[in-house]
TrEMBL record:
Gene3D superfamilies: 1.20.1260.30, Vaccinia Virus protein VP39. It comes from Parabacteroides johnsonii. Residues 510-537 form a coiled coil. Keywords: Coiled coil, Methyltransferase, Restriction system, S-adenosyl-L-methionine, Transferase. Its EC number is 2.1.1.72. This is site-specific DNA-methyltransferase (adenine-specific). Residues 183-504 form the DNA methylase adenine-specific domain. The lineage of its organism: Bacteria, Pseudomonadati, Bacteroidota, Bacteroidia, Bacteroidales. GO terms for molecular function: DNA binding; N-methyltransferase activity; site-specific DNA-methyltransferase (adenine-specific) activity. It catalyses: a 2'-deoxyadenosine in DNA + S-adenosyl-L-methionine = an N(6)-methyl-2'-deoxyadenosine in DNA + S-adenosyl-L-homocysteine + H(+).
Length: 553
């Protein structure tokens, strides 16, 4: 399927969501819509694997034949005819696809219940969601559907109304998807599209869970370059990647996609998310994109409190470190650091970020867990570049220690949730260059202006990544800046101090201007003299000049 077709599928599903949600808030309906897409994906994947596993024993019968046996899916029929073999079959499925779904909970059966407006649809869905959370996967995904309240009054006043609406929603989704061919990535791409659309309609809430793909592409492009020598090209293997404020997981998936596109791989993906709804979205998003449950770990918790046992390890010998860290934490987040936190191993050498803005607290949290040869790229508000006080102290130490590798300024209005311009800081614990690369990509030539949001085009994204990779110098765009110059500027990283996008005023030569004016006056005088000769011959009043210089008859 082409990118155009993928977008068309996404738009089709978005139209269905917009038509069916009625008075329900977009955020509420999002959870239902995306959960059903998730169920469809893992069902299709499971059925395909089951067909391969059973081979000729798979009862690939027509719907009419299945109805004669009182079932709607081939697997329901096989389970009924081969009860003694079910356990061995499921063991094989766990080994090969890492999960199991009982036939009654497969999307095909759910859709059939919806299409026929069966009264048992809602009950079957409830049982199916619980089964997937607790029994489908080797590693329990408890609470995966915790935000899905199938008994909510938003779906209807009573069971019958709720069941009827779910029948309608599921039928429309199934019919919408049926118009398109499918492969392993299609629903994952549609899922990403819908997350973006719901984010666009969620105002200020959008920044909590979604990083626009254009920004994700920049971060993933940077951290997947060879961290030892950027000129040598992309890395072929990242042992592990972390996003400690992962939202829906789109940024982590972008890193994975970039690695795969370059012929590389990632050992394991790690994410942390405080919001329970977006935490569930992230787990679904991983599975929907074909990431096996053994290949990722998403933790529900607060990064600033460092409440993830895996990371909260004081023994240096057991310290977990990451090849690549990416993050888009909430901007200027207010937090309440305690005196005890000042002794925390993440902050003790730098001091605490101010209560009014936890930007540097997030940065230091991630930076602590970065490998010596790793790369970290984080999106932050511009204030971190020049604000004074505690932030100036942290920024100065990072600079003096040679940890800030690049500062990338981006245009305003790229996010759904805020119009402020943002920057990307690239950090390393051991960098080769002694300077700091500044990239000022905020000029109108380097993005496409939109009605609601501005957009970085593919060429704009590629230019940023290539400039970082080659550490190029380009007038009004980029420049490697020495630490001496940064020190002279008081460790202020305001990008325009180092790379200004202002164009020089055109110099005006007043002598030349005066010469041209004299020439023009002479031409005017000659023309007036010739004109008066014609007027005299015709017996008409001659042209004269007033004191003010106006020509009069």
């Amino acid at each position: 399927m082409t990118i155009k077709e993928q977008h068309e599928l996404g738009k089709t599903l978005w139209r269905i969501a917009d038509d069916l949600r009625g008075s329900m808030m977009a955020d509420d309906f999002r959870d239902y819509m995306l959960s059903f897409l998730f169920l469809r994906y893992i069902s299709d994947n499971y059925i395909e694997a089951a067909r391969k596993e059973l081979g000729g024993d798979y009862p690939d019968k027509a719907p009419e034949e299945l109805k004669e046996h009182g079932v709607s899916t081939p697997l329901q029929l096989w389970y009924g005819e081969n009860p003694a073999d079910v356990l061995d079959f499921e063991k094989q499925m766990r080994r090969k696809v890492h999960y199991v779904i009982e036939p009654d909970y497969l999307w095909t059966n759910i859709y059939e219940l919806a299409r026929t407006q069966n009264d048992d649809l809602l009950k079957t869905l409830e049982k199916g969601f619980k089964y997937i959370e607790n029994e489908s996967f080797d590693r329990a995904f408890q609470g995966l559907f915790s935000e899905i309240n199938l008994n909510s009054d938003k779906l209807g006043k009573n069971y019958d109304e709720r069941n009827a609406l779910l029948c309608k929603v599921i039928t429309k989704i199934a019919e919408g998807i049926a118009q398109f061919s499918t492969d392993t990535d299609i629903l994952g791409d549609a899922y990403e599209y819908l997350i973006g659309e719901f984010a666009a309609g969620s105002g200020q809430k959008a920044g909590e869970f979604y990083t626009p793909q254009q920004l994700s592409s920049i971060l993933s492009g940077i951290v997947t370059l060879d961290t030892q020598d950027p000129k040598s090209g992309p890395k072929k293997k990242l042992e592990n990647v972390l996003d400690f404020a992962c939202g829906s997981g789109s940024l982590l998936l972008n890193v994975r996609h970039r690695m795969k596109a370059n012929g590389g791989s990632i050992g394991k993906i790690y994410g942390q998310e405080k919001n329970i709804t977006t935490y569930n979205l992230a787990r679904m998003n991983m599975l929907l994109h074909g990431v096996k449950d053994s290949e990722f770990e998403i933790h529900h918790g607060d990064s600033l409190l460092n409440d993830w046992d895996m990371l909260n390890e004081m023994n240096p010998a057991k310290k977990v470190e990451f090849d690549a860290i990416v993050a888009n934490p909430p901007f200027s987040y207010r937090w309440e650091p305690t005196e005890e936190m000042g002794k925390d191993f993440r902050f003790k050498n730098y001091g605490l970020a101010p209560k009014s803005a936890a930007d540097f607290a997030f940065l230091l949290h991630g930076f602590h867990f970065l490998k010596q040869d790793g790369t970290m790229a984080i999106i932050l508000p511009h204030g971190v570049l020049f604000r004074g006080g505690a932030e100036e102290r942290i920024r100065t130490k990072l600079l003096k220690d040679g940890n800030i590798d690049a500062v990338i300024g981006l245009p305003a209005n790229l996010f759904f949730s805020t119009g402020i311009p943002v920057c990307i800081l690239v950090l390393k614990k051991c960098k080769k260059s002694d300077d700091v690369l500044f990239i000022n990509a905020s000029d109108k030539e380097n993005f496409e202006k939109g009605k609601k949001q501005n957009k970085l085009r593919t060429k704009d994204i590629d230019k940023i990544i290539d400039t970082y990779k080659q550490r190029k110098e380009e007038e009004r765009y980029s420049r490697p800046v020495s630490m001496d110059e940064i020190e002279r500027n008081g460790y202020n990283l305001n990008i325009s101090r180092y790379v200004s996008i202002a164009k020089e005023d055109v110099k005006i030569d007043l002598l030349q201007v005066n010469k041209k004016l004299i020439e023009l006056e002479g031409k005017i005088a000659d023309a007036s003299e010739r004109h008066n000769k014609f007027l005299a011959e015709l017996g008409l009043p001659l042209l004269t000049k007033s004191k003010e210089g106006e020509t009069k008859h």
